Amino acid sequence: MAHRGIQRAELTLHVGYGTFGHVHHEDLSNHKMHAESFSVSEATAATINTHKRAGNPVLAVGTTSTRVLESIASPDGLISSGRGETDIFIRPGHEFKA
């Protein structure tokens, strides 16, 4: 990817059992994810925000990365660095910010 000018940025999500647990509800709005801790460095947030401001796509590899970005994205889609927890469950029709 680097030889094509594509940059990478890393974040951490400590995945727990909740990510792999069964969905026990027919109505997905009733499903509750377990909270999992994450961290996003200042460098990662800056890289993502630079690309977003330039109009370049930001692609999260995997649903866990997507969950973190969606949890910390501001309404305009910019990312903040820091640590926290996420229990977001992305359902069909989710309006992505990040």
Highlighted features:
98 residues; 3 helices; globular; alpha+beta
Description of the structure:
This protein is α+β, with helices and mostly antiparallel strands and 98 residues long. Helix content is 27%, strand content 12%. The protein has three helices and three strands, in the order βαβααβ. A three-stranded antiparallel β-sheet has the order 1-2-3.
Write the layout of secondary structure elements.
Blueprint: E1 12-13, H1 17-20, E2 36-40, H2 42-53, H3 63-72, E3 82-86
**In which order are the strands of the major sheet placed?**
1-2-3
Low-confidence stretches: none
How much is the radius of gyration in Å?
A: 14 Å
Distance between the first and last residues' Cα: 21 Å
Q: Report the total helices.
A: 3
**Mean pLDDT reading:** 81
Shape: globular
User: How would a textbook summarize the main sheet?
Assistant: 3 strands, antiparallel
- Helical amount: 25-40%
Order of secondary-structure elements: EHEHHE
> What structural class do you assign from the helix and strand content?
alpha+beta
Strand content: 5-15%
The count of strands amounts to: 3
